[in-house]
């Protein structure tokens, strides 16, 4: 397949960048990452604790560096950071030409602050600054969870001149708060007479986890009702809520970008905070494996895809601007949820808590397996 015919390259023509939700030393050293840039149009990388657990646990490619850390007397956490930071630095270097060619729009590599500090504003600020200083790459993005405690940290980290990926966003309200947290950080820099043109941000809006949660609730409600019309209506909501929610968020994005407050920053060179579609692998086999790509194509967006979804999209994505289609239908989908006794705010709060937990558990598991490997190699 030529790059011209590859749907992944066509996405760029519609204002959407493809980032990959995966990173390991294997894909860096084998040349696979460079190949994916050339053949799949990758424009960036996101990582998280679950990705690093999968990459490092049981992989001998890291053993020499682990042994070096042992000899240097590093703690298990310090050894993990040395491994992760090295991969992030190398990935940043590989993507730096994209960063430069795009004028700082793309080419970013994201690394998340430790997930166990998601509710600690001061610690998040401290760690974000330390990560930024230690990795020392212009195309690094620090991932900060969009918790109530995380958003003040976003403002302070942006004000410090650090690019930020705000992650674990589920509700439209949380996304709106995220946009203004970024804006406030830029405004602080302007007040201090500092440049804002080299700072970037994305708001990572999660998708498939929403449908998985709500589909379970819909099925439970369908099983309990004898009303055939209601059953049919609720059945029609399955697999529809995440995309509807995302389309409404995009409308909010357009409203906020058009505001006087944002336009004042844009006039000073501010980069718009793009919506990034995350959690884009379809969990239900009855749904299209590229539905979270096809339905949300549009300007000023990023779609971060796991490797299997990248390949699926290269094979059969249907590219067209759809993020602004069927907006009234999207609003109606959200408005219908109370008929199923589904409180969307409650769902989103639950998903945020679960999301943090899904990063803490693999992080803890990685620390445990790394400690076991350290003990094993130290004994040799």
Overview of the structural elements:
With 380 residues, the chain is α/β, with parallel strands linked by helices. The chain has one domain: Aldolase class I (TIM Barrel). The protein is 57% helix and 11% strand. The chain has 17 helices and 8 strands. An 8-stranded parallel β-barrel has the order 1-2-3-4-5-6-7-8, surrounded by 10 helices. α4 runs parallel beside α17 (344-378), α8 runs parallel beside α9 (172-191) and α10 (208-224) runs antiparallel to α11 (228-235). The longest helix has 35 residues, at 344-378. The model has no long low-confidence stretch (mean pLDDT 95).
Structural key phrases:
alpha/beta; eight-stranded parallel β-barrel; single chain
Write a short abstract of this structure.
The protein has 380 residues and is α/β, with parallel strands linked by helices. The protein contains 17 helices and 8 strands. The protein has a single domain (7-210, 243-324, 356-378), classed as Alpha-Beta Barrel (TIM Barrel), CATH 3.20.20.70.
Estimate the helix proportion, in percent: 55-70%
CATH architecture grouping:
Alpha-Beta Barrel
Supply the CATH superfamily name: Aldolase class I
What CATH calls the topology is TIM Barrel
The dominant shape is globular
What about the largest sheet? Answer: 8 strands, parallel, barrel
CA(first)-CA(last) distance: 49 Å
CATH class equals Alpha Beta
Q: How do the strands line up in the largest sheet?
A: 1-2-3-4-5-6-7-8
H/I helix tally: 17
Query: What integer value in Å does the Rg equal?
Result: 21 Å
In terms of DSSP E residues, the strand content is: 5-15%
Structural class: alpha/beta
Low-pLDDT ranges = none
Order of helices and strands: HEHHEHHHEHEHEHEHHHHEHEHHH
Summarize model confidence as the mean pLDDT. 95
Strand tally, please?
8
């Amino acid at each position: 397949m030529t790059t011209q015919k590859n749907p992944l390259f066509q996405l760029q023509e519609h204002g959407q960048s493809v980032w990959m939700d995966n990173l390991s030393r294997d894909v860096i050293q084998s040349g696979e990452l460079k190949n994916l840039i050339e053949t799949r149009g990758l424009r960036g990388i996101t990582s998280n604790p679950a990705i690093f657990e999968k990459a490092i646990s049981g992989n001998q490619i890291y053993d020499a560096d682990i042994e070096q850390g042992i000899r240097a007397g590093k703690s298990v956490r310090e050894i993990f950071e040395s491994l992760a930071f090295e991969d992030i630095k190398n990935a940043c270097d590989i993507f730096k030409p994209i960063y430069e060619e795009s004028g700082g729009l793309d080419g970013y590599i994201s690394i998340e602050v430790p997930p166990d500090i998601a509710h600690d504003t001061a610690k998040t600020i401290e760690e974000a600054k330390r990560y930024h200083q230690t990795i020392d790459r212009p195309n690094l993005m620090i991932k900060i969870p969009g918790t109530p405690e995380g958003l003040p940290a976003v403002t302070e980290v942006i004000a410090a001149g650090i690019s930020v990926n705000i992650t674990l966003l589920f509700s439209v309200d949380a996304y709106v708060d995220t946009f203004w947290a970024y804006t406030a950080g830029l405004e602080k820099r302007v007040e201090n007479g500092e440049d804002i043109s080299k700072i970037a941000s994305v708001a990572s809006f999660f998708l498939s986890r929403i449908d998985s949660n709500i589909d379970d609730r819909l099925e439970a409600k369908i099983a309990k009702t004898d009303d055939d019309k209601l059953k049919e209506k609720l059945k029609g909501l399955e697999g529809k809520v995440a995309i509807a929610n995302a389309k409404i968020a995009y409308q909010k994005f357009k409203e906020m970008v058009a505001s006087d407050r944002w336009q004042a920053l844009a006039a000073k060179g501010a980069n718009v905070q793009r919506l990034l579609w995350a959690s884009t692998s379809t969990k239900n086999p009855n749904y299209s494996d590229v539905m979270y790509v096809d339905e949300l194509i549009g300007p000023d967006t990023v779609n971060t895809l796991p490797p299997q979804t990248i390949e699926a999209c290269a094979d059969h994505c249907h590219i067209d601007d759809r993020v602004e289609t069927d907006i009234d239908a999207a609003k109606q989908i959200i408005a219908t949820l109370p008929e199923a006794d589904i409180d969307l705010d409650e769902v989103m709060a639950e998903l945020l808590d679960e999301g943090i937990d899904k990063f803490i558990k693999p992080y803890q598991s990685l620390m445990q397996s790394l400690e076991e490997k350290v003990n094993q190699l130290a004994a040799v």
